[in-house]
Amino acid sequence: MENDRIIRVGVVGATGYAGAELCRLLYGHPAARLAAISSVSFEGQALSDVYPAYLGMCDLVCETQADVVEKSDVIFAALPHGLSQDLAEECMEKGKAFIDLGADFRLESEAEYHEWYGGEFKDKSLHGQAVYGLPELFREKIKTTKLVANPGCYTTVVPLALVPALEKGYIEAEGIIADCKSGVTGAGRKPAQNSHFPELNEGLSAYKVANHRHTPEIEQTLSKIHGAPVKITFVPHLLPVNRGILATCYARLKPGVTEEMLRAAYEARYGDETFVRLLKPGRSADIHNVKYTNFCDVSLFVDTRTGTFIAISALDNMVKGAAGQAIQNMNLIFGLDETTGLLQVPPAF
Predict the structure, then answer these.
(1) Which residue, 103, 165, 213, 222, could crosslink 81 as a Cys pair with Cβ 3.0–4.6 Å?
(2) CA–CA separation, 38 and 65 (whole Å)
(3) CB 43: neighbour CB atoms within 10 A?
(4) 165, 161, 156: which is closest to 313 by C-alpha?
(5) What is the distance of C-alpha 49 from the center of its chain?
(6) Residues 38, 162: one domain?
(7) Do 11 and 23 contact (CB within 8 A), yes or no?
(8) In the chain, which residues have pLDDT < 50?
(9) DSSP 8-state assignment for residue 304
(10) What is the C-alpha separation between 197 and 195, in angstroms, rounded?
(11) Are residues 26 and 58 in contact, defined by beta-carbon separation less than 8 angstroms?
C-alpha cells in the first residue's frame, strides 16, 4: 500500500449482524480506520448504544449513506438485496472501492438474478466489473478490481469443501448433495417466527428445501471450476446456536480414486492457504473450532462400501461467511497481506 496510508473504511448497514461484525473486526485492523457508519434504523445513534459490548471501542454515530461515501476510501455494504446497485455506481464514479456483502453482484446471469431475487441489473457494464470475492479461488482477479461481490456463508463453505476433488476430476459432477446446518445469525437481525427463541431452542429443522437462493451461486462457482454446468441438491437447516455453519457434502467417487489421492489433491490446493485448514485423517470439522475467526476447516472421508466421498467443512458464518471474508478482500484490493487483521485465535472452549 502506497506510503503505508491508513485505509478509511465506511460501513453502510452497520447495525445489522454482518455490519456490526465488520466494525468489530475493523477495530483491530492495523492498516484501516473506521471512518464512518450508517444505519437507516438507527441514524443519529452510536453503534455502542445498539451493541453495548462495543462501548468505548466503537462509539461512532450512524450518519447518512452520503456521509459514509464521502469520508471513506472503501465502502462495505451490508444491505438486503436490491439496495446496493445504486450505491456501487456512486462509489465507482467517485473512485472508491466497494465491497458488497449482499447478493446484487454475486450472480453473473441477470436471468438467474431475476428468477431468484426478482430484480434486474440496472447497469450491465457495472456488473461486468464485479469480481466474485472468494479469495482462495479468485485471488488474482480480486486484486485488479474495485468492485467485489462478497460471497455469503453457504456459498463459501460448500465450494471450499468440494473444489479440489471436482478440480481434479475425482468425483462425479452429477448427484452432489450439500447438507448444511447454520447458526441463527445467518437469518439476520430482524426477528422472524422460525428464529424466535421458543421456536428455535432445542430443535433442528430444514428450511427452504430445494429452493434456497444460494443454490445458483454455489452452482455458478462449482461450474466455473468444473468447466461445465454443475447442479447440486442443497438442503439448509437451522441450528439453535448463534453462529457457525457445518456443511456435509456427498459426491460419487470416480472409479479408482482413493482417499490418499483425494488428500493429496486437497493438500496441494490448500497447502499455502492460511484460512483453509485441512484436518488430519479421522478428525471432523466442528463449528466450535472456527468461532469468531476467518478459518474454514475441512475434513475428508471416503465410504468405500458405497463409493461415496464425504467432505465436511465448517466456518463462522459472520466472519469467513461474511465480514472476515470482506476484509480479506479489502486487504487484497489495497495490496496488503490478506491475513492482516484477521488472525484471531479461535476460543478453545
Answers:
(1) 103
(2) 6
(3) 13
(4) 161
(5) 27
(6) no
(7) yes
(8) 1-3
(9) T
(10) 6
(11) no
Cβ pair 333, 145 in contact under 8 A: yes
pLDDT the model gives residue 192: 82
What are φ and ψ of residue 23, in 5° steps? -60, -40
Instruction: Indicate whether 245 belongs to any domain.
Output: yes
User: What CA–CA distance (Å, rounded) separates 23 from 298?
Assistant: 27
Cell output for 278 = 485441512
For the chain, how many residues are written? Answer: 349
9 grid coordinates:
473504511
* Residue 86 within any structural domain of the chain: yes
Element (H, E) at 205: strand 205-206
We report the CATH number of the domain holding residue 89 as 3.40.50.720
How many domains are there within the chain? 2
Buried b (16+ CB within 10 A) or exposed e, 144-158: ebbbbbbbbbbbbbb
Same domain (yes/no): 116, 173: no
Residues with catalytic annotation? 153
Could you list the residue range(s) of the whole structural domain that residue 133 is in? 2-151+320-333
> Nearest 5°: phi and psi at 259?
-60, -35
Q: How far apart are CA 20 and CA 335, in angstroms?
A: 25
User: Do residues 233 and 328 both lie within one domain?
Assistant: no
Sign of the torsion formed by the C-alpha atoms of 154, 40, 23 and 91: positive
Decide if 106 contacts 48 (C-beta within 8 A).
Answer: no
Cα separation, 146 vs 34, in Å, equals: 18
Query: For the chain, where are the alpha helices, taking DSSP H only?
Result: 17-27, 47-50, 65-71, 85-93, 110-117, 124-129, 135-142, 154-167, 197-200, 215-226, 259-270, 324-333
Q: 341: closest CA among 28, 3, 16, 10? A: 28
Identity of residue 278: L
> What residue has cell string 479489502?
330
Residue 257, pLDDT score:
98
Is residue 245 a contact partner of residue 154, using CB atoms and an 8 Å limit?
A: yes
Query: How far is residue 7's CA from residue 156's CA, in Å, rounded to a whole number?
Result: 26
Domain co-membership, 305 together with 183: yes
How is residue 128 written as a grid cell?
461486468
Residues facing 277 on adjacent strands: 297
Instruction: Provide the grid cell at 196.
Output: 424466535
